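[Q] Does anyone have a clean structure-token version of this?
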Amino acid sequence: MIDHGIAFPYYRLHIVPAVVALASPSWQREEWLDPGRLEDLDHVVHVLFDDFCDAREPAPWLGLSLRTEEEVELMARLGAAYDLVQDAVGADAPDEVYLDAPGWPAVVAEAARLAQMMVSNDLMALQGLHEAGHRWPPGTGIAPHELEEQEREKARELAREREPGRPGEDPAKA
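[A] Here you go.
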């Protein structure tokens, strides 16, 4: 798997939560069906199909908001599953009709696969940045090579303390 990076990380900050929302039926019912909430299916669809990606045609988003070919493939599968439901219920159907549609579990399943992939890829990218010495917030923490040197120095210090006959050592423990 090749990580092509993301040129538009701000876009990804919208895409990942939208995919996670599609992967969670309990979230959908609690949030989308509550008129007092801001998020609904329309919002998620705009994020994934219009504003920050195009789930029907995700290939051009590789390296922009999608990291890998696998993400592109899974996004296309999610788009296709959603389109089947939309075709069955109509584009103007209320959210509850979508959630009760026979094809909705396929949307949830595809979203879950994509969510797992995207979160795993982001965590691997974050680990790579951490191992390269990048810290957040900037200026905090210790770069890996500095930490390794500190650990080696600590090990040498412990080894010296354990040498028999060191001043201040209890002879009975030597």
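[Q] Thanks! Anything notable?
[A] The chain has a mean pLDDT of 89.
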